[in-house]
Structure formats: C-alpha cells, structure tokens
C-alpha cells in the first residue's frame, strides 16, 4: 500500500518530534520534511512537494498568507491546521486561506488521523468542538460574499454616482456621458435597488459606505 508523503511545521520541538514519531509508527505515511516557521513551510512545499502538510498557526511568519500561497502554487498539497488557537475565527481564516482541515491540539490522535483520512479523500474536516459553529460561519460568509457581489457597481454605475456627487441632474448626466435621459433613469433605478436606497442622496451615501467609489 502506497504511503502518503507528509510534512510537519510547528515551532514546538517536543510536539513536532511526537507527531513525526506517531506518523512514522503508523506505517501509512512517509515523513519527508519538518520545519518551525511559515517560511519553512513554503520551502518544504517547493522542495519536497508533500501530499499533506500539517501546520500550526502560532509560529513565526504570516501563516494564513503562507497557507494561501502554498494552495495557490501547489494545488495538489492538502493542508491541515493543527493548533491550540481555539477560536471559530481562526478556523474560518484558515479554511478561507485554503486549508482543508482544522484540528485542535487537545484532540486525541484518532481525530487527527481521521482528519487526515477525510482530507486525503477530498473532504473538509473541522474539529468536533467547532464543527457546527464553523459551518455556520462559512454559510454566513458565503451569504455576505453574495451580497457584496450583488452590490458591486459597474464602471458606468460608478460614473453616474460620481456625477450625483456633483449634484448633477439626470439630463446633465445624460449629456455628459452621451446617454439618453431614459437610460440614466434606468441606471438610477438599478442603483437604488442594488444599494437599497430610496433617493439620489442615499445612493451616494450607500455607495460610499460599501466602498464602491474609487
């Protein structure tokens, strides 16, 4: 049976040695490298190309950025975060960066191995203590992303809001942009719907609040 190539990145030497020993004893894994900081994880991904990386969050360097970079550059590498950072926010950030699993260090070995099996089968794994909360957070994030996408303004819509900032009428906007007044009115209707605004002033305020004006 082929063994899975795995690497560990953690700045706690005793824990690092323990994980390496645990995985070596299982007979199902080949430990190809280990490190103690985010930069080491990048180097390991580049040089050793493991199939799986198990890494901590609380170590030197931008770990979340490191996860995102590795997943982007090496799509075949799966990442499990194994950490003492017991917070839903940490789990959401790690998964959003591209990690496939999030396991707390207080977990038993069988849960970590279960996470590895799930992730290597293409599934997402979240530690039992936070599964419901994290999944709810992921759903809420997806909803917010859809809402933000729905509110995103086109170049033409931004131009019209810019003219509204200068208190120009629909006719003046139409003349400036070489559009018909009817077309400008259509854009105004769309803008009020997108930004949940009732009038021209609220359109401008909502666009500014949503960060839609350059």
Defining key terms:
214 residues; Rossmann fold; Arc Repressor Mutant, subunit A; 2 domains
Concise description?
With 214 residues, this protein is α/β, with parallel strands linked by helices. The protein has helices at residues 13-26, 38-48, 63-73, 88-97, 109-120, 131-151, 155-165, 170-177, 181-194, 200-209, and strands at residues 4-9, 29-35, 52-55, 78-83, 101-104, 125-126.
Overview of the molecule:
The structure is a single chain. The protein is an alpha/beta fold and 214 residues long. The chain has 2 domains: 4-143, 3-Layer(aba) Sandwich (Rossmann fold); 152-209, Winged helix-like DNA-binding domain superfamily/Winged helix DNA-binding domain (Arc Repressor Mutant, subunit A, Orthogonal Bundle), CATH 1.10.10.10. The protein has helices at residues 13-26, 38-48, 63-73, 88-97, 109-120, 131-151, 155-165, 170-177, 181-194, 200-209; strands spanning 4-9, 29-35, 52-55, 78-83, 101-104, 125-126. It has a 6-stranded parallel sheet with strand order 2-1-3-4-5-6, sandwiched between helices. Helix 5 links the parallel strand 5 and strand 6. Helix 8 (170-177) packs across helix 9 (181-194). It is elongated, with a radius of gyration of 25 Å. It starts with a strand and ends in a 5-residue tail after the last helix. The relative contact order is 0.08. The mean pLDDT is 85.
């Amino acid at each position: 049976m082929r063994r899975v190539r795995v690497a560990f990145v953690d700045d706690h030497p005793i824990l690092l040695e323990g994980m390496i020993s645990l995985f070596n004893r299982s007979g199902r894994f080949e430990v190809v490298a280990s490190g103690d900081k985010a930069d080491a994880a990048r180097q390991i991904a580049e040089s050793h190309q493991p199939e799986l990386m198990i890494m901590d969050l609380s170590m030197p360097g931008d770990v979340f950025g490191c996860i995102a970079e590795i997943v982007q550059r090496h799509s075949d590498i799966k990442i499990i975060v194994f950490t003492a950072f017991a917070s839903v926010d940490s789990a959401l950030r790690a998964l959003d960066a591209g990690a496939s699993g999030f396991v707390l260090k207080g977990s038993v070995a069988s849960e970590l191995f279960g996470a590895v099996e799930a992730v290597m089968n293409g599934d997402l794994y979240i530690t039992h203590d936070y599964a419901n909360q994290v999944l709810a957070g992921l759903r809420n994030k997806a909803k917010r992303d859809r809402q933000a996408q729905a509110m995103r303004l086109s170049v033409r819509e931004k131009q019209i809001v810019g003219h509204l900032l200068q208190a120009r009428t629909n006719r003046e906007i139409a003349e400036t942009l070489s559009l018909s007044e009817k077309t400008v009115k259509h854009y105004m209707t769309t803008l009020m719907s997108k930004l949940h605004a009732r009038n021209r002033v609220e359109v401008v305020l909502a666009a500014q609040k949503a960060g839609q004006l350059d």
